[in-house]
Amino acid sequence: MAQLDTQAKLAILADAAKYDASCASSGTSNRDSRGGKGVGSSEGMGICHAYAPDGRCISLLKILLTNSCIFDCHYCINRKSSNVRRARFTAEEVVKLTLAFYKRNYIEGLFLSSGIIRSSNYTMEQLVEVARSLREDHDFRGYIHLKTIPDADPELVRQAGLHADRVSINVELPTAEGLTRLAPEKSERQIEGAMGSMKGAIVDAKDASKRFRSAPRFAPAGQSTQMIVGADSANDRDIVNRASQLYGRFDLRRVYYSAFSPIPDASAVLPLKRPPLMREHRLYQSDWLMRFYGFTPTEVGAAAEDNGMLPLDIDPKLAWALKFREQFPVDVNRASKEQLLRIPGLGTKAVSRILSSRRLRKLRLDDVGRLTVSIAKVRPFIVTADWRPTLLTDRADLHTMLRPKTEQLELFSAAA
């Protein structure tokens, strides 16, 4: 590997890290250095509040330790057989970069992953050393997210949890068949075993903290994972079911979805083009329905079309409502919270406001309009004191009426 300066390494390894979407920092414990002790903060403006246009968080220093790898996963641009420029940071260089970026107010934390070099244990040792040095040598109190390696020694993974706010282990692909086909050196059993061990360690640490004041914190922001969407034949229904299983079995904070991106010199087993980014967005909306709106995986799957794919032109909640019109209209003055959460166009905040407001008086249509973003989407599915949709809910062209209008954006319209 040619000798590169820090700036050249950063350009290569920051770009290589862009394919990992799971860098949010919610859920960690609050720490800061306002008392004159330590460096950094895990709260305040900048952390997990700045996003790129495609929705990815940009508030963390997000890099790989190295993009060299001994594995040859077909979908990965950093695979062993890939013809890309390689670079590698030392643990000390990552520590210095993190501190320098923080002191310039560029970041509020670190997201660190890596290709596998030499062995899984050696790579995991380097990742842990970065977090250890930041915490112990520099009293860094900002956010740290470490990607752990499933087949690394459990003690190394445990040390990662002692220094990091969040740890994550990527399941990579939605199905075992896809993983075997596209990443034969990885094992679903091994990945899930590591996730199960991490879950147990987090639960034990929480229990210890309740009983002992001096108990060390352990991954207070929990663990997350990521699935690549569109690299294999899994449809949206498969992905939703898999995500639900992961939440239930491993108490994950988040499952992230990353649309597959075609890579140079790609293997013949990969698709030739990436899936639409809207598919990734619909999966995140489905994830929200299960986590915050009380939908089951089966109900979300029922919103999909016959091929198992969620419609791209409307959101999953509206797709479900159009398929199950017998559930509507819903009387906003009498319905339960669970029924209100299923109305297209009503979010959790709007439902809370409706529940509070109707204690004071009967709600009219214009009242609901003031409590939500768009009354047009809501009208066909609700009954108020002065409104009943009559035949509107059953109209054959309701899908077309509620589908967002397609607009051609103008590049220089803002300049006028």
UniProtKB/TrEMBL annotation:
Q: Does the keyword Iron apply?
A: yes
Q: Where is the Elp3/MiaA/NifB-like radical SAM core domain?
A: 59-286
Which cofactors is this protein said to need?
Answer: [4Fe-4S] cluster
Origin, by domain of life? Bacteria
Q: Which InterPro entries match?
A: Aldolase_TIM, DNA_rSAM_put, Elp3/MiaA/NifB-like_rSAM, Endo/Exo/Phosphatase_dom_1, rSAM, rSAM_sf, RuvA_2-like
Keyword annotations of the record: Iron, Iron-sulfur, Metal-binding, S-adenosyl-L-methionine
Pfam families per UniProt: Radical_SAM
For this chain, one GO molecular function annotation is: metal ion binding
- Reply yes or no: does the keyword ATP-binding apply: no
- Give the protein's recorded name: Putative DNA modification/repair radical SAM protein
